[in-house]
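Progress report, Aim 2. The chain analyzed during this reporting quarter is listed below.
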Amino acid sequence: MSERLSVNQRIQIGKEDSPGTAVPAVRRLRSFEFAPRVRSEFQTHRPEGGKRVAASMLVREWTEVAISGLATYSEIGYALASMVGLPETESLGGGVYRHRFRSRDLEPDLLASYTCEYGSPVRAFRFAGMRLGTFGLRTTPEEVQTHGRAYALPLEDGIALTAGPNEAQTVSLLGAPSGGSFLLGFESAWTEPIPFNAASLVVEAALLELPPLGEESVEVTGEAGGPYTVTFVGELGGANQPLLHADGDGLTGGDDPSVEVVEAVRGGLAEAPLSPILPGDLSLTLSDAPDGLGQPEHRLQRVLGTDWSFEDRHRPFWVQNASHPSFAGSAEGAAEETVQLYLAADATGMDLLALARAGGTRFLRIDASSRALRVAGTEIPYRLTFDAAVQVDDVREFRDDQGLYAAGYRLRIVQDAGWGKSFEFVLVNETPGY
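Predicted structure tokens for the chain:
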């Protein structure tokens, strides 16, 4: 019997068209760590005169998911779409997109919900209607980590993980060859010469002779002489595969004949590039007015740690309706939206104490722009910008931090009438939409 190993558990999600209606989970998440838990409430009854409970009845059930893991420029957008609201997205060209996430102060937000599949090919769970009610980012000079909590409909056990499509590649003979042969290769192995006008079954047989492939690993279709479609199946199906190698030096006739291989269908689940937000990508500015956001003269020089956190943005509600065996929907509330900020207790750090006493508003920007990673092969860096109007609402303890004497503050995000908003996230990456 195959064991369900912890190391093999993976996360797949699918965006739902109708919240709570399950869809195939066709995207694999690689940066988040999920810890799902069955939550339940029971009603018990002890008959009068008896010492012990005679009945225990399940009243409510739902799924709760603790979320942690690496913060990345690509996958953080799924959390923001579920917690803040669906973004406004624009193409910057070349496969680069900019997403703006804003919460509407006087209207309900449009929130993404997901079907999540969690497990391995041995055994897996599924829970639909997943939304993040709490999410945040904790940064130190050593790391940038996510934290949060989601809720979903009751967990379904024993499902099969959604498989990705089979990899398909097109092999074309260019230049109209009239004789000779060509070679195809996979990894380090090459086929025997294949005639220029070979039938698809001949090409398939040649590929199946390669040791890295083996029996029933590819299927080849197409007319004699190509183009041929090579589809990876069996144990190699449902996963991304490297492009076949091609050598057309043996082709003759025509006009400088050659062989071209292109990916027709990318195999496997959709995955975003792993694009981590690193501590060295971050800078913070704090200004008196919105037009000072991001200006070098307002940069905070001795930031020792931050933790922005959005808690209880929305939560599930239940109704007395038999067609809803779990919660019926989500209701937004007055959220707890804060930024914990630790600074060296120098003149800049202690200026926030004066701000707390005055009750004034400042404008904070946390800007992460990747120093090393570029989007989709362009010169545009990955970027996440968080702007917020804030007021100090708690002064934390002074403490030692790496030998520096540090001051801590909790900044509450507020609606600013002049600015016309409370906060905004702007995310630049390769994802067309959330």
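The chain has a mean pLDDT of 95. The first strand starts at residue 10 and ends at 15. These observations will guide the mutagenesis work planned for the next reporting period.
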